[in-house]
Design a protein that fits this description.
Elements: E1 36-37, H1 46-54, E2 62-63, H2 64-69, E3 100-104, E4 110-114, H3 116-119, E5 121-126, E6 129-134, H4 142-157, H5 160-177, H6 185-206, E7 217-218, H7 220-232, E8 252-253, E9 265-266, E10 272-273, H8 277-290, E11 295-299, E12 307-313, H9 317-328, H10 341-354, H11 356-359, E13 378-380, E14 394-395, E15 408-409, H12 410-425, E16 442-444, H13 466-469, E17 479-482, E18 486-487, E19 492-493, E20 503-506, H14 525-535
Parallel strand pairs: 1-6
Antiparallel strand pairs: 2-4, 3-4, 5-6, 7-8, 9-10, 11-12, 13-16, 14-15, 17-20, 18-19
Helix pairs in contact: 1-9, 4-6, 7-8, 7-12, 8-9, 8-12, 10-14
């Protein structure tokens, strides 16, 4: 049952839902949509986009028969709106939202699982028009999704009549899905109850308070650590190392992922070496673990260090490689509206003088066989540093006690586990050691192509518009609503957001400070306007 725990851990973490009966239907996506495409380059075709939306990466959060049979506390199907109430984006002709995939778990049960597209696809509203920006930070509320799923399960289990009807639907759906036959109804009932108990315990430990993340943010790093250390390396298949699970109270904004292949380092703290296919696979394998791939190191004396890392492992490495290939075709979104070319020319000079030293395209560290990376230097510009407390966590090594001290740095444990998975999958794989001089308060400084499309700004999403970012921190909004309505003048979040999706961001909350990065704050109004006009064109 531990395999199903996967559901609630991260980043995203957020497990998923599906509404297709079989994987072969995944290609049946309608070409029609009610949103406008934004130009993201000639390689970003409809076919590539649709593949990115639906590719399976091996996350197995919950059996599809369970999720499709579940009702919410009001008696309505939990999947009734394709999860749009949590900000996930629908695909016409397909009930499964963007970034949710179907695949078989380690017991050959059709399951649902999150992919990178769920948290890295955004839609904005300007006037009466919707615009889809692939690779942009999503406006999703992962925390609410996970907690509502828990509530729906509790409500079902605590009502004997509802539970029996639910089991009837699950058995019927399992047959339709081609799952292994369910011959023991009591065993199924107990499995569902245990799943709910584990989910509730994990939520209680990692997300004990309400609204810890909000819209468009997640504490992916802590949830990856929580899953790997709290669940994957626990001594028993259906248990947790409770002491290894920490409160996930350091949320950050989802980053944009176009141009990912060019960065020499990635993650907000520039802690992950990047820039070639091996490093990308390492990065994506960690992400896959974080959002719920089934995994356990299985003792095996014939293996190099006494463990088999693939025997119980649902990761779809071909899918991970395919997703990275799709992302490599994704260009930065081009501003879809008109610009003032005179201001653009003035803004280019201002950018060169004030911004290019950190955000220009300068050569990064070589990444054999490629030498075309862009430098993403880790720089402390005085922004909120609460995020870095995650990097100091220690943990018990659990089942891997023969490989690590009794208590050791959790980052090392997690990274080692990920590397060992890949070294067994591809014995010839090599990794690059970091030479980055990162440290507390030092965040990656990225090339700003498409920056107009990724508000709110700073790593924690604490500044709603580019115009606000070019003001001293004392003049930036202390509270604002996060949502899909976009302001094309200030470049960022509109003051007015739909109440259904709106979430109030409070910069006085721990970790939410909007201080720092006070570059360009001395510009006069005309120069600031020119710089903003230029930033639209990147």
């Amino acid at each position: 049952m531990k395999k199903f725990l996967t559901l609630f851990l991260i980043i995203c973490i957020l497990a998923v839902t599906m509404q297709f009966i079989s994987c072969k239907n995944e290609s049946l996506i309608s070409s029609g949509q009610d949103w406008n495409k934004v130009d993201q380059g000639s390689q970003w075709t409809d076919a590539v986009r649709n593949a990115y939306y639906t590719e399976d990466q091996g996350v197995r959060s919950i059996p599809y028969s369970w999720l499709s049979s579940l009702n919410d506390p009001t008696g309505v199907s939990f999947l009734h709106d394709n999860l749009q109430r949590y900000g996930f984006l629908p695909i016409k002709g397909r009930q499964l939202p963007v970034g949710f995939a179907l695949g078989r778990d380690t017991a050959n049960i059709m399951s649902v699982g999150l992919t990178c597209a769920a948290c890295h696809t955004r839609q904005i509203s300007v006037g009466e028009e919707l615009y889809r920006i692939d690779g942009g930070p999503a406006f999703v509320n992962n925390e609410k999704y996970v907690k509502d799923l828990e509530s729906a399960l509790i409500g079902t289990i605590n009502n004997q009549v509802q539970l029996e009807h639910f089991l009837d639907r699950v058995i019927s759906a399992s047959i339709a899905n081609g799952d292994p036959a369910i011959n023991d109804r009591n065993a199924l009932r107990n499995k569902v109850i245990r799943f709910q108990q584990n989910l509730s315990l994990f939520n209680q430990l990692s997300l004990p308070n309400a609204d810890m993340w909000g819209v468009g943010r997640t504490d992916a790093l802590n949830q990856i650590f929580n899953r790997v250390a709290g669940i994957d390396i626990s001594p028993y298949p259906d248990s947790m190392i409770i002491s290894n699970i920490a409160i996930a109270d350091k949320p950050v904004r989802f980053p944009f992922i176009w141009n990912m292949q060019y960065q020499d380092y990635t993650q907000w703290g520039a802690t992950s070496v990047n820039g070639n296919s091996n490093q990308a696979l390492l990065r994506n394998t960690a992400e896959c673990l974080g959002v719920g791939a089934q995994f356990r190191p299985v003792p095996n004396s014939s293996m190099p260090d006494g463990f088999d890392y693939l025997a119980v492992n649902s990761m779809n490495f071909n899918g991970l490689l395919a997703l990275e290939g799709y992302i490599n075709k994704m260009g930065a979104p081009k501003w879809p509206w008109s610009v003032n070319n005179n201001l653009v020319a003035q803004g280019a000079d201002i950018f060169t003088a004030n911004c290019a030293s950190c955000h220009g395209k300068t050569p990064g560290e070589p990444r054999p066989p490629s030498t075309t990376t862009w430098a993403t230097p880790a720089i402390n510009v005085g922004t909120d540093s609460w995020y870095f407390n995650s990097l100091t966590r220690s943990a018990s090594p659990g089942v891997l006690s023969s490989l690590f001290p009794a208590v050791g740095p959790l980052g090392i444990i997690s990274k080692t586990v990920t590397q060992k998975i890949l070294q067994q999958y591809q014995p010839s794989i090599t990794f690059i050691a970091s030479t980055n001089s990162g440290g507390v308060g030092k965040y990656e400084s990225r090339v700003m192509e498409g920056i107009w499309a990724v508000a709110p700004y700073l790593h924690n999403g604490s500044v709603p518009t580019l115009e606000d970012l070019l003001k001293p921190a004392s003049q930036r909004p202390s509270t604002f609503f996060v949502g899909v309505n976009y302001d094309t003048l200030k470049i960022g979040l509109s003051v007015n957001q739909p109440l259904q999706a709106g979430y109030q961001f409070n910069t006085s909350t721990l970790g939410n400070s909007n201080v720092g990065h006070e570059y360009g704050t001395q510009l006069n109004a005309q120069d600031r306007a020119a710089l903003i006009e230029y930033l639209k064109t990147l």
